[in-house]
Amino acid sequence: MTHEDPFRHHPNLRPLITPLAKSFFADFKPDKVRAMLRERGLDTDWISPDATREAERARVMAGRMDRDLWVFGYGSLMWDPAVRFAEVRRAWAPGVARRFILCDTNGGRGTRENPGLMAALDSGDGCHGLVFRLAAEDLEAETYSLWARERIGSAYHAEFLRAETADGEVEALAFTANHDAPQIQSDLTHDQQVGMIASGSGFLGTSLAYIENLAIHLDEMKIEDAEVMRLLADVRARAGA
Questions:
Q1: Rounded CA gap, 54 and 49, in Å?
Q2: What terms describe the molecular function in GO for this protein (predicted)?
Q3: DSSP string spanning 161-220?
Q4: Among 113, 154, 179, 206, fewest CB within 10 Å belongs to which?
């Protein structure tokens, strides 16, 4: 059987996407996260029970496990999807937007003393990103990994949305902002966002590194995102002050 190159549509992305074997998230299991947090003296109560997370995965994926799955990435999934994928395409999802409203106080890229900030997918005028196609035979393992990472807490909903690519429209799984979760703070001022990105740090790295990685990928794909570039410029200006 001939396997096509997953990067055949966008060979320029090959050096920018972390290989599965080198991904920190390749073994991102809730028990591992709990252990890391306890070592740092951080709370673990925010981590969803395994049974709840698995029940949601079964419900959302019901009737879909026998065919390939597209997954929409707009943030860290773009450069570190941590799943085995058969194809990646640039995509545009209408009706949603990339917004810096995910406040991290749980230790990933921020703490209670120095909260970090990352992007979440919220309602809006459309969002450019990537879609990854997961082969049907890999779905059990790969959707488990996706849920363990994206639904470890309550910040997101799992839902399907429409994504447009140069090779046609696809239905893609996406993890979108849950406004009932305390981590989602949609009323942050620009100055608050800058401060959180400038100071947030945790076991996943810094909030600054997160937005820098995002900016690199958007630039490589010739995607303009005024909010990302303004935030990054202002964070760097504050750091240099």
A1: 9
A2: glutathione specific gamma-glutamylcyclotransferase activity
A3: EEEEETTEEEEEEEEEE-TTSTTB-TT--HHHHHHHHHH-EETTEEHHHHHHHHHHHHHH
A4: 113
Would 4 be classed as within a structural domain?
no
Catalytic residue (one of 140, 150, 220, 227):
150
Residue identified by tokens 């949601």 is 56
Domain assignment present for 2? no
Annotated active-site residue 150? The verdict is yes
pLDDT in tens, 64-123: 999 999 999 999 999 999 999 999 999 999 999 999 999 999 999 999 999 999 999 999
Q: Residue 179 is part of a domain; what is its CATH number?
A: 3.10.490.10
Residues spanned by the domain of 119: 11-240
| H-state helical runs in the chain | 30-39, 50-60, 76-79, 139-150, 190-199, 207-220, 226-240
* pTM of the predicted structure, to 2 decimals: 0.94
